[in-house]
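Q: What does the assembly look like in three dimensions?
Context provided by user:
Components: two
Sequences:
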Amino acid sequence: MSINVLVPIKRVLDYTIKPKLSADGSQITLDGLKMSMNPFDEIALEAAIRLKEAGDVTEILVVSCGQTQSMDVLRTALAMGADRALLISTEHELQPLAIARCLKIITEQEKVSLVIAGKQAIDTDAGQTPTMLAGLLNWGQANFASSIQLVESEVLEVIREIDRGHETMRLALPAVVTADLRLNEPRFITLPNIMKAKKKVIDVRLATDLGVDLANHFNVTKVFEPPARTGGIKVNSVEELLQHLKIKGII
Amino acid sequence: MSISILVIAEFNEQQISLATRQVVGAAQQLGSEIHLVIMGSTGKTAAQNALSVMGLTKVIWVPENFESINQWAEYLASLAPHYSHVLMNAGSTGKEGIPRLAACLGMAAFSEVLNIVSPERFIRPIYAGNLWIEVEALDDIKLLTIRSTAFEPVSDQGGTAIWQEGAGELVHPLSSIVNQELHYSERPPLDSARVVVSGGRGLGSAEHFESLLNPLAKVLNAAIGASRAAVDSGYVPNDYQVGQTGKVVAPELYIAVGISGAIQHIAGMKDSKVIVAINQDPEAAIFSVADFGLVGDLNVLVPQMTAALQSLET
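A: Here is the predicted structure of the complete assembly.
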């Protein structure tokens, strides 16, 4: 049975860097800052590659929605082991529902039966797009996966991390799974694979050519820094600490 | 459209969660017509007890067995159009269910709302809470997951809600639960405890993590949390993780023991009222958010602190 996997990936500010606001404080500025593949998407891709190495998956397609710069994370994905890459080209940042609608078209056209996605993007922290995609496709979904296994020819067993511990779930393909932190540790990319990836063609399609409604459903009216904590002090002993906590009425 | 709010409850066999009462508190900032829905046949007692929760106009109990999130979302898709707002705590179910519900309705969802500016404008965190954005919702129904720690809970006494039993059929389930491994302890739950004692990789081992921090947590009646490093090292299970992608907590007192203070960890605890950090590295990033920092060996300082608190009790 041929299982094609789609892994959506997003180009985001590297997780080690704090975002900055423009001089007038009106928007986020990313100029000159290091951008990377969203860490959860790397984990999702690694999961897909391991399923392929185990013989469970036939082909891995990585898809990114954005401007031409997103090609760099697509190339990284190819170097990691994705088979094909597609850029859904858009000048303006699309919102989760619009992206989910684009991914639905690709999923259907490419005969994908498994979507493995990062559970959230570390810039927007919304964690919606893969779940919205599952809803639009009316597929089963398993979020926050810490383990993914194909147990029968078209049935997944997923262990997921939930509020009070773990849950083991079964779902038949086609399905959407989102990757949590402990699903795996993504491999390092080797130089030969980077060189090979440079030669691969990345397909490009315009978001506006997909025939879906790309409209915004909300406006971002302000972006700002949250109120900062006032600075603290160092204390010299446990006694001093407890005195301060008593004064604050905490103990 | 007039304002009416559907709050989807988290619940156990006895009652709705404290976080859900905080979500009702958030709902009160939107309007006064608030309906609470308990989705599940195991929720009857919780639903009956919810009749006394303040601020509710109606409690709806849906006596169905929801096996999978697609059934849950599709059921709510028939209920939601009666409301202007649908709210749920940003816990596991809210995070996996509200976006699916939004997609079923063809609308946007807003994750981790921590401030309500108006019925159309909400504030939510991005970049691990380093920035906040104000969003203006354009759809007829506003679907929100709420950062419950940002809102005061309503009381669980004094309410006068009316009762309704939900009807309707469920669609075919697309997944099934094989098994759950959940942790219940005498300690308060991490996301709603008044005090949290949290440990990092500095604790060295699972046994040491437990033997050093349990007595401190006990004397403070605290929940225990952990950094990602401590969870990854196997000292504690995943549901103890505090951080951008773990639990976000905002207790009265957060004590960070042997935690260096990575951006992602700070994102999960920086709204705590008082933060205490114990670390042997005076340059540790955690000290930049701590109100009180104690530099030294946690193996000496934590037992000292525990003993001092124990003697205060006697």
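Follow-up: The longest strand of chain A covers residues 140-152.
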